[in-house]
Amino acid sequence: MLTDKQQGVLRGMVSGVIATLLALTISIVAHEPAFESAPGYPAALVHALTWDVLIVVCLLVNIGLLARHRFFTPDDIDGGGLTGGTPQAQILQSTLQNTLEQTVLAVSVHALWAVAMPHAWQAAVPAAAILFFVGRVLFWRGYARGAPARALGFALTFYPSVVMVFLIVGRLLLGLVW
């Protein structure tokens, strides 16, 4: 039997997976012109990196929030390496660490997607970048309230990368077989 917290996390994660699958599928099938790249792998890579500005903005904001907090909080101004940190600094540091990890994963996956997947599928990158942005906002807002409150935000940043990696690997494996 799952605890209430586990059930809350599961609801958030399942919701995130469903939103991810819908957003990626719709972006690939609908061919929204604003989400499409020009033909060719260099153009697809430029397209992916351009949309990834949304992801970089999330990292920048998170760094800025922690820096601002440290500047205005005497107990935290020396940084986490020299102090134990106030509870707020610990929360901001934790969200920054997770955002950094998710940023590295997402930008890497989007670059791989740009060079490994067909042109018609490139609209998935903007969809994933938008999900990341929305997910980070939800993650930050929910973090201090515990795992169930941040689960959907985490899922919206993590699962697009997971789904895209599986599709890339699947395409590569099919290429070996065919």
CATH topology of one domain: Four Helix Bundle (Hemerythrin (Met), subunit A)
Secondary structural class: mainly alpha
Q: What is the percent of helical residues?
A: over 70%
Amino-to-carboxy terminus distance: 45 Å
Proportion of strand residues:
under 5%
**Mean pLDDT over the residues:** 94
Rounded Rg: 18 Å
* Shape call: globular
CATH 2nd-level architecture of one domain: Up-down Bundle
Question: How large is the count of helical segments?
Answer: 6
Task: Give the tags.
178 residues; mainly alpha; Four Helix Bundle (Hemerythrin (Met), subunit A); 0% strand
Task: Summarize the SSE layout with pairings.
Layout: H1 4-30, H2 41-51, H3 53-72, H4 87-116, H5 124-143, H6 147-177
Helix pairs in contact: 1-5, 1-6, 2-4, 3-4, 3-5, 4-5, 4-6, 5-6
